[in-house]
Design goal:
This protein is α/β, with parallel strands linked by helices. Helices cover 29% and strands 21% of the residues. Strands 1, 2, 3, 4, 5, 12 and 13 form a seven-stranded mixed beta sheet that branches. Strands 8-7-6-9-10-11 form a six-stranded parallel beta sheet, sandwiched between helices. The structure holds NADPH dihydro-nicotinamide-adenine-dinucleotide phosphate. Keywords: Oxidoreductase.
Length: 343
């Protein structure tokens, strides 16, 4: 559970969480309820926004899903049904959906039940893939890149946080769509991996660069057509300064602004106007309707080794606080998740 809410400008610490024992039981509600034993849970940067005590600009988050002290943190994951009063789910079913950073989750209410999805037990792909590449990260990359980015063959694409869960997939989808792709990441090892393993055309360590606008000019002498933004702040400002006319900015995340509001981006709106840029945000549930298409195409890419899967798995419930603090420091490569229990 959350022990301490965070101040507006603060990074989370492991001590902001605590472990609690509690009893859960099924009630006979109209929708029915399900208890799931959690196997893998997703560790996502956006949870920091839900932990903030106050936020001047996250009103939507504040009202819908802010976390109070003592509250369990719900999170995407996969698990096995251990009890159900819901006619759609039976004991032993494998499921994916909004579970929690806990050993067992009680799934109740329309939103969470509508998200809960039965998994095929016969699949040849590892169950962990359902959390990342075939879960919300994959759908975020696919839905955002294709719907908002609207790529064309030959487009020049820039992806930030490119070695992360969403970013590495965006870069790989972009390569598979015939685009020229450059990624930014926070250390040398990540940069090498993007170029050597994932086939990015180029990559750079943003921490080595003092003037991001000239850096992007160097990597994109002919301008950027699509910027898939995972970080916001200075990188967003620099990307906008390098966009081609009618370029698309896919506003996916702003991880460099989450801890400190003082990092807010202030893009040059004159550039946006005269270059007729589109900047569009989205949230992954917008694309749930495309899930079947996305999962089928992506599974085929994985099976034919056209798409590399990067997973970064910690073991045990007690590793969740350090896993979470770690992704906001850039410790992870690919999808960060915690395996709560072996199958
Ligand atoms: P990642 O796996 O990419 O992990 C976060 C990464 O962000 C770290 O590995 C780190 O890599 C980078 N990072 C951390 N702090 C900073 C910083 N101050 N400046 C620049 N980079 C930083 O996470 P996800 O793939 O899950 O998420 C990527 C983005 O997508 C996030 O902003 C997230 O909130 C957003 N998102 C949005 C969704 C939506 O519905 N719109 C859904 C899911 C995710 P590095 O070493 O490169 O610094």
């Amino acid at each position: 559970t959350v022990k301490n809410q965070l101040e507006r400008d603060a990074e989370p610490k492991e001590s902001d969480f605590e472990f609690k024992n509690t009893t859960i039981s099924l009630a006979l509600s109209d929708d029915g309820e399900v208890i799931v034993q959690n196997l893998y849970v997703s560790i996502d940067p956006y949870q920091i926004n839900r932990m903030k005590k106050q936020s001047s600009s996250h009103k939507a988050i504040k009202s819908s899903s802010a976390l109070s002290p003592g509250q369990v943190i719900d999170a995407y994951g996969v698990g096995r049904v251990v009890a159900s009063t819901n006619s759609k789910f039976e004991k032993h079913d494998l499921v994916a959906g909004f579970l929690g950073w806990e050993e067992y989750s009680l799934i109740q209410g329309e939103f969470k039940l509508s998200f809960l999805r039965k998994l095929e037990t016969s699949t040849d792909l590892p169950l962990s893939h359902q959390v990342g590449v075939l879960g919300l990260s994959g759908l975020t990359a696919y839905g955002g890149f294709y719907n908002v980015g609207r790529p064309k063959k030959g487009d020049k694409v820039f992806v930030s946080a490119a070695s992360g869960s969403v970013g590495n997939l965006v870069g790989q989808y972009a390569k598979l769509s015939g685009c020229y792709v450059v990624g930014s990441a926070g250390n040398k090892q990540k940069v090498e991996m993007l170029k050597d393993k994932l086939g990015f055309d180029d990559a750079f360590n943003y921490k080595d660069e003092s003037d991001l606008t000239s850096t992007l000019q160097r990597y994109f002498p002919d301008g950027i057509d699509i910027y898939f933004d995972n970080v916001g702040s200075k990188m967003l400002e620099a990307a906008i300064a390098n966009m081609n006319p009618f370029g698309r900015v896919v506003a996916c995340g702003a991880v460099s602004e989450y801890a400190y509001e003082t990092n807010r981006a202030s893009p040059n709106m004159i550039d946006v106007i005269y270059r007729r840029l589109s900047i569009q945000g989205f949230i992954t549930p917008d694309y749930m309707k495309d899930y079947a298409e996305f999962a089928s195409i992506t599974s085929d890419y994985i099976r034919s080794a056209k798409l590399h899967v990067l997973e970064d798995i910690s073991i045990g419930l007690e590793s969740i606080p350090s896993a979470f603090v770690g992704i906001l420091r850039g410790d992870n490569i690919g999808k960060k998740m915690v395996q709560i229990v072996e199958r």
